[in-house]
Write a structure and sequence with these properties.
- The chain is an alpha/beta fold.
- A 5-stranded mixed β-sheet has the order 3-2-1-4-5, sandwiched between helices. Strands 8-7-6-9-10 form a 5-stranded mixed β-sheet, with helices on both faces.
- Helix 2 runs parallel beside helix 3.
- Bound molecules: 5'-O-[(R)-(carboxyoxy)(hydroxy)phosphoryl]adenosine and zinc ion.
- The site of 5'-O-[(R)-(carboxyoxy)(hydroxy)phosphoryl]adenosine has 20 residues, from helix 5 and helix 6.
C-alpha cells in the first residue's frame, strides 16, 4: 500500500478553538477548506476556555465536515483517506476531531492517520508554494509555539524554541493588558497600525544569548510595568494604546526577524518559511521580506488563511503520511505535547 496515491484526503483539525475540515487532492490542491471559529464563545472570558471549546466542537464537527464535502464536490465514497490532528493542543478539543475522523474512516473502510499540528503548519508553506522544496528554515509562530526548524528531505530538526511564552500568547496577553478585544493578536495589530513603533523602547529578549532560543514572558512583563507606571490601563489614552501596541509589535517581530537571519546563516540555508497564526501579522511579513531582500534570503509566507489554524495543512500532511504507508489504529489517541 505504501506506493498508493491518496487522491482525495479529508482533513480534520480541532486542536484549539477552531473546528476545521478540508478536502485536498493529491496532497497539494485545496478543493475546500472550512474553518469555524469560536470567537463569540470565548470573548466574554478574554481567552480560550478549554471546556467550552470541546463542547462547541461537538456541536460543530458534523456540519463543518458536511460543508467541506459539499464545497469540494467530492462524495464520501470517493475519499481515499482521513487525516486528523492528534496533537499537540487541548486534549478535550483534539478528541472531538480525532473521534469523528476515526469513526468516519471506520464507516467508509478507508485508512486514517494522526497528524502533528506543527508538521501541518510547516507544510502550509509547501501547500502555498508548490515549488518549495526542502531543505529550508521553518519558523513556526503561533499561540502555543515559537520555534525554528531545519526542514530537510529526511526529517525535521528543531534548532531553537521559546523558553516560556509563545509569541502569539504574548500578543494575546498584551491585548488583555491594553483592554483590547478578543482575539488579541489581530486586535494588537489593528491598534498598532495607528501607533508609533518607536514610542517605547521595549527589550528585544534573548538576542544577546548564544543559540536560537526565544523568550517572550519578559517582554509581556515590560509592557505591564510601563502601563502600571502610567496609572493602569484605564488611565491610558487611545493614542497611548496605539503606541504601546506598535512598540510591542515592533519588539516582538524584530526578535523573530533577527533570529531567523541568524539561523539561515548558521545552517547555510537560503529560504525561510514563516507559518502559524502570527505569520498573518502584517509587520512581521513586511519586516521579514525586507530582511530577505537586504540579506539575500527568500522569504515564504502562506496566505493568512493558511497561516492560522486550518485543516488543509492537516489533509496535505496526512496525504504524505498515508502515501508513505503510515496508518493510525482505532485506538489512536490525542496528545497535549510532543516533538514533531
Ligand atoms: O496557529 P494559530 O491559529 O493557533 C495555534 O496553533 O496557536 O495561532 C493563533 C495565534 C494567536 O495567539 C493569535 O493572537 C495570533 O496567532 N495571531 C496574530 C495575528 N493573527 C493571529 N498575532 C499577531 N498578528 C496577527 N495579525
Ligand atoms: Zn496552530
Amino acid at each position: 500500500m505504501a506506493d498508493r496515491d491518496f487522491v482525495h484526503v479529508l482533513g480534520v483539525e480541532s486542536s484549539c478553538d477552531e473546528m476545521a475540515c478540508a478536502v485536498v487532492r493529491h496532497g497539494r490542491e485545496i478543493l475546500a477548506s472550512v474553518v469555524q471559529d469560536q470567537v463569540d464563545v470565548h470573548r466574554p472570558y478574554g481567552g480560550v476556555v478549554p471546556e467550552l471549546a470541546s463542547r462547541d466542537h461537538v456541536r460543530a464537527v458534523s456540519s463543518v465536515v458536511d460543508q467541506a464535502l459539499a464545497e469540494s464536490g467530492v462524495a464520501l465514497a470517493d475519499l481515499d483517506g482521513i487525516a486528523v490532528t492528534a496533537g499537540p493542543g487541548l486534549v478535550g478539543s483534539l478528541l472531538v476531531g480525532l473521534s469523528f475522523g476515526k469513526a468516519l474512516a471506520y464507516r467508509l473502510g478507508i485508512p486514517v492517520v494522526g497528524v502533528h499540528h506543527l508538521a501541518g503548519h510547516l507544510l502550509s508553506a509547501e501547500l502555498a508554494r508548490a515549488d518549495l522544496e526542502p531543505p529550508y528554515l521553518g519558523l513556526v509562530v503561533s499561540g502555543g509555539h515559537t520555534a525554528l526548524y531545519r526542514v530537510g528531505r529526511d526529517g525535521t530538526e528543531i534548532l531553537g524554541e521559546t523558553r516560556d511564552d509563545a509569541v502569539g500568547e504574548a500578543f494575546d496577553k498584551v491585548a488583555v493588558l491594553l483592554g483590547l478585544d478578543f482575539p488579541g493578536g489581530p486586535a494588537v495589530a489593528k491598534a498598532a497600525a495607528h501607533g508609533d513603533p518607536e514610542a517605547i523602547a521595549f527589550p528585544r529578549p534573548m538576542l544577546k544569548h548564544p543559540g536560537l532560543d526565544f523568550s517572550y514572558s519578559g517582554l509581556k512583563t515590560a509592557v505591564a510595568i510601563e502601563i502600571e507606571a502610567l496609572g493602569g490601563s484605564e488611565a491610558v489614552s487611545e493614542k497611548q494604546v496605539a503606541d504601546f501596541a506598535a512598540s510591542f509589535e515592533a519588539a516582538a517581530t524584530d526578535v523573530l526577524v533577527r533570529r531567523a537571519r541568524k539561523a539561515l546563516r548558521q545552517e547555510g540555508l537560503g529560504v525561510v518559511a514563516v507559518v502559524g497564526g502570527v505569520a498573518a501579522n502584517e509587520r512581521l511579513r513586511s519586516e521579514m521580506a525586507r530582511m530577505g531582500s537586504r540579506d539575500g534570503f527568500e522569504v515564504v509566507f502562506p496566505p493568512p488563511e493558511l497561516c492560522t489554524d486550518n485543516a488543509a495543512m492537516i489533509a496535505a500532511a496526512g496525504a504524505r503520511l498515508l502515501a508513505r504507508g503510515e496508518r493510525g489504529a482505532l485506538d489512536l489517541n490525542a496528545f497535549s505535547r510532543a516533538p514533531i
